[in-house]
Amino acid sequence: SAVISQKPSRDICQRGTSLTIQCQVDSQVTMMFWYRQQPGQSLTLIATANQGSEATYESGFVIDKFPISRPNLTFSTLTVSNMSPEDSSIYLCSGPGQGDIQYFGAGTRLSVL
Amino acid sequence: GENVEQHPSTLSVQEGDSAVIKCTYSDSASNYFPWYKQELGKRPQLIIDIRSNVGEKKDQRIAVTLNKTAKHFSLHITETQPEDSAVYFCAASMNNDMRFGAGTRLTVKP
Lengths: 113, 110
Hints:
Chain A is mainly beta. In chain A, 0% of the residues lie in helices and 52% in strands. Chain B is built from no helices and eleven strands. In chain B, a hairpin with a 4-residue loop joins strand 7 and strand 8. Chain B is globular and about 40 Å long.
């Protein structure tokens, strides 16, 4: 199984600031994924991060708000920009293991005041 | 795009009883169907999965069935235990593009 390390595990941020979340995979993977999970809700895909190209964003998510970096095959970052209380959520990254299996990071619990 | 519907949203069973959670998907091209268990404050953990060329798969007390024609798949947990209490998510995927159902909160009462 793949090991996904994500940090920070939680943060409390002020409105208008930005937070960058980091995700490290213990093996080289072509695609990594970023999800948002609001309290008591399901996982919503934000974007797919491909190494060497721009991320592909899902409907309702834009690059200016959620810029993503993918500098190599084991690492990705998601930035939540110009935060508002509505951005309070859990953010999770995932990466594929063997075949189609997806493994998740532990998540970042973000609270925006 | 793919749309996954999951029912029920909550399920309460007595310890030792069986639990069944059902999902439907919309995109016939989806070919991989995992089930994740998420305990409070923790990451989703894969518990079982099935691919489109298989109709049923079992792992101890957990089984998954897939009906490709009807585009639905189900999770079956037998002899439930209190530690099975969690939120369960189904998903449908193709080429690693994975979409999740809304989740089912399972409570197993001792």
